Amino acid sequence: MAQPASFDWLAKINRSWTARLALDLLPENKGPKVEVFRGSVIVTPHAVFDHQEIELELAHRMKRAARQTGLWLYHEVNLVSGDDLFIPDIVVLRSSGAGKVSVDISEAVLLGEIVSKGSRRKDVIDRPREYAAAGVPWFLRIDFRNRVPALALFALEDGEYRPTVAAAAGSVFAMKEPFEFEIDPADLVED
């Protein structure tokens, strides 16, 4: 018989966590992000409103461009990489995730992270390293210091991400791959 989904499992499980274990035992929620990294559960509260605004605006604008090339864009979905469970801010997939709870990282074409003040190391070093090791071809970093957004696109080369294009607010970020997309990063913020 299946176990009921509950956050109580966080206190009951006394062994390394896996993506499958988390997906099977923990409930779907609109609360904090619950990820698994190297056997540990990572619980993160929602980011500040600026982060959320940038994420939604960027996902909305990029989605149409991705679909025109046969790719599928989502934000904050369950991405399984071996035993790890990531929830990137932006996810571009080779195929639709419709009806799925999670998708394997091998389906990812581009993963994007908005750098948060409290998780800078994770967003700038740890996650890109893991995504590169999994073979994700493109990584998009959205930085937001002093309320000034900047975007940088990285391509996977020889197992590491190398910058291909970058722009800060007031200039044009124009990427050609994995699909064409242009934006002034300043357009991602409300004011």
UniProtKB/TrEMBL annotation:
<dbReference type="InterPro" id="IPR011335">
    <property type="entry name" value="Restrct_endonuc-II-like"/>
</dbReference>
<dbReference type="InterPro" id="IPR012296">
    <property type="entry name" value="Nuclease_put_TT1808"/>
</dbReference>
<dbReference type="GO" id="GO:0004519">
    <property type="term" value="F:endonuclease activity"/>
</dbReference>
<protein>
    <submittedName>
        <fullName>Uma2 family endonuclease</fullName>
    </submittedName>
</protein>
<feature type="domain" description="Putative restriction endonuclease">
    <location>
        <begin position="25"/>
        <end position="182"/>
    </location>
</feature>
<keyword id="KW-0255">Endonuclease</keyword>
<dbReference type="InterPro" id="IPR008538">
    <property type="entry name" value="Uma2"/>
</dbReference>
<dbReference type="Pfam" id="PF05685">
    <property type="entry name" value="Uma2"/>
</dbReference>
<keyword id="KW-0378">Hydrolase</keyword>
<keyword id="KW-0540">Nuclease</keyword>
